[in-house]
Amino acid sequence: MTNALDRDDEHFSDYERKIVRCVREHGWFATSVSADEEGPDFTYSIGFEATVSQPEIIMFSIKHGHDFLGDIYSLMKNGRTLELGIRVPEILRNLDVVFLPVDKRFYAEYPLSARWFYGHENFALWQMVWPDHNGLFPWQDGFAPEFAESQPDLSFGNWGGLKAA
Questions:
Q1: Are the CB atoms for 61 and 41 separated by under 8 Å?
Q2: What angle (nearest 5°) sits at the alpha carbon of residue 137, between those of residues 133 and 140?
Q3: pTM above 0.90?
Q4: What domain of life is recorded for the organism (predicted)?
Q5: pLDDT tens-digit profile of 24-44?
Q6: Residue 58 and residue 134: Cα distance in Å, rounded?
């Protein structure tokens, strides 16, 4: 499928040209959005699918999300294929993370620049979900309530079916 790398950049904004330049030079780009009254801050990748045939990644409430996306990209570039719903220890220094598919109904709200880059919504986007300080994920009993609003569930519901209904 085509993406912004295949299109004439004559009508691109400076920001769009920056995305394309970074994807060409580094294989990916990170977009970060600050927290507001509607929700927590988040960071997502652009270019993973185009350059390493892996899903784009979105994460919430993680300082230095760009750095973690860089680590994920390096893993992918070196042949690591991430799996859905499986604990992955190599991303956050002392905590496992789990990747869950993002429901396309959230594409209109979150990965706006990725939608522009691909020119459609037919790209894979996975949410990187992190646990609380006790290693419990949002779908597990006992997950720290102070983190409940820090990362919304963008899956198809009940944290990808992992939370008991």
A1: yes
A2: 115
A3: yes
A4: Bacteria
A5: 999 999 999 999 999 999 999
A6: 23
